[in-house]
Predict the 3D structure of the following.
Amino acid sequence: MYIPGGLRSWLALCLMGLSSVAHAQSRPSAPSFVPPAPIGGPALPAAPALPAAGMPGVPGMGAMPGMGAMPGMPGMGVPGLGVPGIGGGLPGVPALPGLPSSSMLTSRLGGVPVIGPLFTNPASVTTLIPPVGPFKVSGWFDYGTVTNTSGPSSGYNGPYNAIDANTLMLNQAYLIFEKSLPEDGCWGVGGRADVLYGHDFFLAQSFGFELNQDGSQKWNSDEDYGLAVPQLYFETGNDIIQWKLGHFYSVLGYESLPAVNNFFYTKSYSYQFGGPFTLWGGMGTWSMSENLVFDVALVNEWNTLDAPSDHLNTLARGTYISDNGDWSASLGMITGSEFTNPARLPGIFNGYANRTRYSAIFTKSFGEQCQWEYVIDHYLGSQDVGALDRENAWWYGIDQYLFYTMSQQWKVGGRFEWFRDQDGTRVGLNRPSNPNKPPFEGNFYSLTGGINYTPYPNFIVRPEVRYDWFDGRANPYDDGQKEHQLLLGIDMITRF
């Protein structure tokens, strides 16, 4: 019987995962490539550098690595956006005995308390690398594969820029050096540096740092694998007030770049094409009470350290967590002047104007032992004079998640998302060789189901099935031949 090559890779990885699981159970428990900037992402198109006013620096919008980093067309997805989750998961929510809730804990994984996914309790993970002076060293390896049942000849899964290739890949070799603030409530100083190598590098790049101001690469020359520094900051404060200065993940949205913070292997459209991945500037966090936390930041443009023309953006977010931790709500927004045509689409004004994006997230745990958890994330973004005839460009949608914790080892989940790219300026390509070219005006939908199996705290297997379909102009999938696609994915995370 003939089995497509991609499917053979997927089955092989499943067997590898089962083999690794069996082993874990036996242990005692305890030319320079210019990534198309995704919507908010850093990758600028390979087009010649814009004059000061037209710097592609707006990674977020179309410059997102995901969008159309194709020569002349940066991607649309923003690299930093979905990173809301960067660390969320307040342990307060009593999932099954001994299991923290996946989304209610005030975590400092990203440097500031945030609400977002955290599917492995950090306290249960065994740290394998000894501290370096006052710094704790940790990280993970994330490797996996995705099979597209349509079998596109290019090997690319449409404009989907996170897990976009049908091949076995190392997504993240992630290393963290961190000195945390004091845990006894006293004032202190700390800092953090994250280094990422792998297929996901383009989601973490910044103009003026990994990228030159015109979007060309500084030190990466391969479109499939590269090195990035997604976080590099100094912080000071105590358990009430913290100040952070440097380079850090965006705190807007539910999903995030670090693999250990997400339930699913694949990413949502809102993360890839809706907002910034990373930011440069300063952020203050105030825990007004045990229930209410505020974040305020002054930063440069999306995914930008330095651009031909820099512009200040303001970010603010408020988070409320219930007394018993069974529900939470947050509302965040970023606004400021950004490049109007990051995707380098014809007929759109090349200059700078206001871009605003907000995200509202609500999470609720329920059931006798809070085994069930529901999450909804609503977002809306607009770019002034970012559409044809200098009209405003809009994108918005809703992501919904439902999780069920069966035991400390098994958890199942589903995700349904709707992303509307009203003017075709957000969703696009990520790598130059991807032939699925934007613009795509219309509605993107996806339905994803998956399992998280954690036989050992340091090891996670995440198989999933995802179906995407599009209602609008053009065909985003199968190299421009189809309006839908079915993906089979699986990855394994090994923490250290």
User: Anything to note?
Assistant: The radius of gyration is 21 Å. The mean pLDDT is 81. The CA atoms of residues 340 and 386 lie 5 Å apart.
